[in-house]
Amino acid sequence: MSDKKSLLESLTELGEEHEEARLRYEAENDAWWDALSEEEREDAFYAVVKRIHQAEVIDRGTYRYALYDVFGFDGYMYGRGMSCGYMTLHNCIYTPQEIRDLRDRELASHGIIPKKHTFIVEDK
User: Fold this and answer.
1) Does pTM top 0.85 for this prediction?
2) Each residue's pLDDT tens digit, 51-100
3) Are 66 and 56 in contact (CB under 8 A)?
4) Number of Cβ within a 10 Å radius of residue 63
5) CA-only gyration radius of the chain, Å
């Protein structure tokens, strides 16, 4: 029982450290943004929105596709994209069926054939 308690305490501590690091990064990022000239902010905005438009509207790609193929990031940015709200934005753009289709395409691109779910409704 004490091992379980120790593990839970360690996980809690790790979560708190992660949140502190996220908040620190967010503050540093805001300071970076504030230090940019208006032209640099405009250029950064244009570059990011252009890529989001390409990934989401033109290509209709997955979250990973946007990060890795359009932005050219590695796996490290997966969590950062979640922290800044990009995954939420990505998911708001699609209907639930489109999200399932994107998931299935992503799985298939890795050689995984997704199971088709059948739901049975019972009469009461």
Assistant:
1) no
2) 999 999 999 999 999 999 999 999 999 999 999 999 999 989 888 888 88
3) yes
4) 21
5) 20
